[in-house]
Amino acid sequence: MVKLSVIVPFYNVQTYAPDTLRSLRANARADFEFVLVDDCSTDGTPEILQRAERELPGAVVIRHERNGGLATARNTGLDAASGEYLTFLDGDDWLAPGHFAHLLAAMEDLGCDFVRTDHVQCTGRARSIHRAPVGRRGEVLRPRDSILPAERSTSVDYPYAWAGMYHRRLVDRGLLHFTHGLRTAEDRPWIWRLHREADSFAVISRLGIFYRRGIASSLTQIGDVRQLDFIKAFDQVIEETAKDPESERLLPKAVRTYCAVIAHHLGSAGKYEPAVARKLRAMSAAALKRMPQDLLKEVLDSMDTERASRLRKVRRRPAPLTAEAAA
After folding, report:
1. Pair 45, 38: CB distance under 8 Å
2. What is the pLDDT of residues 46-62, one digit of tens each?
3. Which residues contact 315 (CB under 8 A, 6 or more apart)?
4. How far apart are the first and last CA of the chain?
5. CB 198 within 8 A of CB 241
6. For residue 68, what pLDDT band results from cuts at 50, 70 and 90?
7. What gap in Å lies between CA 1 and CA 208, rounded to an integer?
8. Please, which residues bridge with residue 82 across strands?
């Protein structure tokens, strides 16, 4: 019987994969399995994973013949996983020894659908602690109660799939899979669905995940068209939240978060290729027009001047988004 399945996608991370795999070995247990998904890497990652399959207890390697992105790779891992509990790690991050055993003990003690935990962000040699934005620790809570308030950072603004552990019943209910093909912001519809539809969760104070930032090859550092998938992701958040029985209460948070992310990307437009920057502005204008306009007005009126001005400027774009721009 497999107690825990750990799903780890890898894509062109030959520099960092050895650290990740060493940390998995320091977390291995006879009833743990490690589902290592190679998302069609073109560097030395496949050879590193081949060795890991021989040397890491419980390792299973699955290779994609085509690159599908993080969401698709995680889904592959979910489909192959057999554990009673599941968790994630990215192929360039690492763990403290015994981290998974600690989370699993908390899960079994609390008996909830999922737990969330804090993490350490690593940018070069710098380290900073990032806390899950929930004050009550070590007690079972109702997930949808942690979506609000709209004007503050809440649990849905901490979307990292690897910052937690999940019971298999969430897979059975269709709540753990990611939207196939999303190349960025894949965790945003996922975290919202989890908080709207799961029954229980808890947050525990544990610093055992080390999240690597600022990697040149990371999608967050590359200004190409894949970054624009955040619009598809948040359109999905809005669409699904609008169908919720408490949509009137929850939608202001969804709209405000979407606006904040659009403003962030518009403010970083200089990192994009010129054609992608133009597409960003066109798609952002169209996204603002799709939002509930009464809620959008309230959000813009309540935001700081800089972000609100940025959004109002792009909102005034007269040209509709063409099919070519949306492709």
Report:
1. yes
2. 999 999 999 999 999 99
3. 285, 288, 289
4. 46
5. no
6. very high
7. 25
8. none
Q: 148 near 247, Cβ under 8 Å?
A: no
10 bridge partner residues: 38
pLDDT range class, residue 319, cuts 50, 70, 90: low
CA distance linking residue 117 with residue 208, whole number of Å: 9
**Residue 89 CB-density burial (10 A; 0-12 exposed, 13-18 middle, 19+ buried):** buried
Look up residue 323 and give its two tokens. Answer: 């099919």
Cis peptide before 9 (omega within 30 of 0): no
Q: Tell me the per-residue pLDDT of 123-172, one tens digit each, with 9 for 90 and over.
A: 999 999 999 999 999 999 999 999 999 999 999 999 999 999 999 999 99
Average pLDDT over residues 97-107: 97
DSSP conformational letter for 219: G
Check whether 318 has a pLDDT greater than 80.
no
| 62 touches 77 (CB < 8 A) | yes
Count Cβ neighbours within 10 Å for each residue of 145-154 and write b for 16 or more, e otherwise.
ebbbebeeeb
pTM of the prediction? Answer: 0.93
Q: What is the pLDDT of residues 1-22, one digit of tens each?
A: 999 999 999 999 999 999 999 9
> Minimal CA–CA distance to 7: which of 113, 107, 93?
93
Structure tokens at 104: 């699993």
Region of residue 138 (left: phi > 0; alpha: psi -120 to 50; beta: else): left
Token pair recorded at residue 103: 């989370």
Residues 6+ apart with CB under 8 A from 131: 118
pLDDT value of residue 327: 44
Pairing of the two strands 201-204 and 114-117: parallel
Structure tokens at 101: 């055993």
